[in-house]
Amino acid sequence: MTLTKVSILIKNGRIITSVTDKVSDIYIEGDKIKAIGKNLDVKSELVIDADGLFVFPGGIDPHVHMHLPTPAGFSADDFHSGSIAALYGGTTTLIDFVTPQRGQSMVEALKLRIEEAKDSLADYSFHVSPVEWNKKIGNEIEECIGMGFPSFKIYMAYKNSIGIDDNALYHVMHAVAKHGGIVLAHCEKGDEIEQLRNSFYEQGNTSPKYHALSRPSHLEALAVRRAIDLADQTQCPLYIVHVSASESVKHIIQAQKSEQPLYAETCPQYLLLNESVYEMEFTNAAKFVMSPPIRSEKDNHTLWQAIANGNISSVGTDHCPFTMEQKMQGKDDFRKIPNGAGGVEHRLGLLYTYGVAAGKISLKKMVDVFSTQPAKLFGLYPKKGEIAVGSDADIVIWNPSKSSKISAKSHHSNTDISAWEGFNIKGEPTHVIKGGAIAIENGKLAPNIEKGNLLKRQTTGRSHYFKYLHTPGSNNCGRV
Ligand code: URP
Ligand code: ZN
Ligand code: ZN
């Protein structure tokens, strides 16, 4: 059911964007921001007093996996449940993935995936994954871009299913660059990892810890280096997903210094958790089986620093939850534990608590990595990722004086486990507004909330990506 939207006036909130911090009013009509200013003289059907509260643009999570098929079954959230969890955490836009079977048309797979997502309550879009290379793939890349999907994720890991080799990657990058898109790369040396996994298992090492030991940092960093070189050769803008290791960050900084259009994403789990999680018994350790694995405290530190300095542009969640029953499929063989953890609901709370409140990043930087940079990099800006007249009215009103503890018992994701169990959170949304309508109010999902929109995105080619390249050390660096 579509409801007529009431106009909303948010009064006296402290509006934080990636570049400004000011107390003002915001007037919303329909699905857009209509006016911003002090003491706005407008008649509004709903007034929200935001005195003492922060107002952020709605979050864009550029990396989620809803209803992902795996040998252990689908990831536990579908687009409906996952989008509800997202909204509770202030994320109003999700970018998921289209992963075709080898031999299947990417365009066909994209159309099917669009159908699967139609019950999302957040707005949504997709990165498309070339899982092989041939001429047809080149044509389909052009077609996907023409349809409004200009970003393509490749996997250097998972070689026996969806991963591609360097030759295929070169051709994919060449085609994506030619048509003005961007490649996202999952960087882990797949062949070497496969050998390590099998040899650990054959020696009787079956527990979750061997998942981590078979995916060491240097095999991530080597793949990062290779992806950067191939992107340079093909002049292709590159976004490295879920960066977890200090060694990878070194390569990223080096390439950014040479002004290559290169961006990086990390996730809260690589900022806040360390390898001790794998020392616990199976039912705890299995929650942290994800790729790349959780690294060290030193890596946590490097990644925060890279965010503050602008070398890492974006924080996604890689939301890919499974239930304990699914994780148990790898009880006697870590290779069978489905990879991934949930987190779409907690990105803002974790960034605020352990980034801003802990003095590691500024509020503006938090907004930048949570919303603005993902919007800019993936062709959604300034419709999304901004609080400005004409932008979509996707807004989080955040009360910094509330506190809570994360638990699988109270989260909104469709799984009985959480990698964030017991984490304390400072702050919570009093309101999440999506497309001009209240989606969440004081911890409750609004009834009859409208479905989200499929977002077709724009690309303006390589020069677009240069435009948004961070200059480490510039005044946009986000140090507190
Ligand atoms: O372990 C993870 N990250 N699972 C999701 C798939 C991926 O590699 O992003
Ligand atoms: Zn990945
Ligand atoms: Zn992922």
UniProtKB/TrEMBL annotation:
Boundaries of every Amidohydrolase-related domain copy: 54-437
Which InterPro entries does this entry report, sorted A to Z? Answer: Amidohydro-rel, Hydantoinase/dihydroPyrase, Metal-dep_hydrolase_composite, Metal_Hydrolase, Metallo-dep_Hydrolases_sf
Query: Does this UniProt record's set of keywords contain Metal-binding?
Result: yes
The EC code for this enzyme is 3.5.2.2
Q: What enzyme class is recorded for this protein? A: hydrolase
SUPFAM superfamilies named among the record's database cross-references: Composite domain of metallo-dependent hydrolases (SSF51338), Metallo-dependent hydrolases (SSF51556)
Q: Which Gene3D superfamilies match?
A: Metal-dependent hydrolases, Urease, subunit C, domain 1
Modification type N6-carboxylysine: residues: 153
Key words, A-Z: Hydrolase, Metal-binding
Q: What is the protein name given in its UniProt record? A: Dihydropyrimidinase
Q: Which species?
A: Tenuifilum thalassicum
Q: Which gene encodes it?
A: hydA
